[in-house]
Automatic annotation (TrEMBL):
PANTHER family: F-BOX DOMAIN-CONTAINING PROTEIN (PTHR32278). Residues 7-53 form the F-box domain. This is F-box protein PP2-B15 isoform X1. SUPFAM superfamilies: F-box domain. Coiled coil: none annotated. It comes from Nicotiana tabacum (Common tobacco). It holds the Pfam family PP2. It comes from the Eukaryota. The lineage of its organism: Eukaryota, Viridiplantae, Streptophyta, Embryophyta, Tracheophyta.
Amino acid sequence: MADESEIMKLDLLPEDCIVQLLSFTSPYDVCHASLVSTMVRDAAISDLLWEKFLPSDYRQIISRLVLPINFASKKELFLKLFSPLLIDGGRKTFSIDRISSKKCYMLSARELSIAWSTNPLYWCWKPLLHSRFPEGVELIMVCWLEIKGKINTRMLSPRTTYGAYLIVNLAGRAFGLDSLPSEISVKVGGDHESKGIVLIRRNYTNSRKQELERVLMRHRAETLRSRVDNRGGTERALCDRGDGWLEIELGEFYSDGVNDKEVTMCLREVKGEHLKGGLIVEGRRLKSLIRKRETKCYETEQRPPCCSIITQATGSFRFLYKSLILELRYIKFPIVRAEAALLLNIHAGNGKF
């Protein structure tokens, strides 16, 4: 190991340089990096750094909050946005994903287009227990079930894959919902459509009851399901969220951040021509899905080369890279560490180190 006199300490770097480097990582890494030194700790709590992690339109978003929030720093604001907050008069919630730091939204039932929902003979609007929103809607009885939701990609994080979910519950009197699979789809502009089917049914704790129903209704169910075209689609099931609600995955889509497109999400069952009821709708949720290519805070081609930042700040590759490798080798810095190792090898091969 090199003598201490040879090791250039990170504390000698300008704070704005450290902030720039930390901004290429993630909030998780920043919190761990704050243990490295006093200078890094100061940079890790700076408003300049945490503003880079916040959505670019965060000021406009917090201006839409139903209840204003108080925060003393940008880091505190970032952490408060982990919890879903009501916006737009209580018709939506906004939050930041804890893992990816991407925008997440939930649209209330009032933000959805539900066929016949304005007719109290078919749908009943009422307050719901354990709901994020002031009210939801319960299906009384219809033969035409269609629920649509729309959002523009400009509201979402760029270069991010999203999953769309319908948040529902089943009343004790629910009927007719599992006679025929409902068709689900997610369409982005006119370019992409994800399709599938879902059978809306309760998961019985009494497996004997479920087996008896399956045997008695098998022939009728198979006849009805033959009417549903699911070519190229995926068969999905209701998932228990653990908070008293169930969710139906409608599909996935990619927000490229370049073109503003309208995303249409739909669940419909209109082919059975039978009565159905007892479906309770809370809203529609949009959350980011983690993909390996999306785990970096910035795409490689969209950020300045790490070496150019360091050259401008210090005039020496050795100054930063030796410090990073020796002092941050136990910290999760995938981007900086990879570039540091590459440049060290290049310059070592040229005899510059």
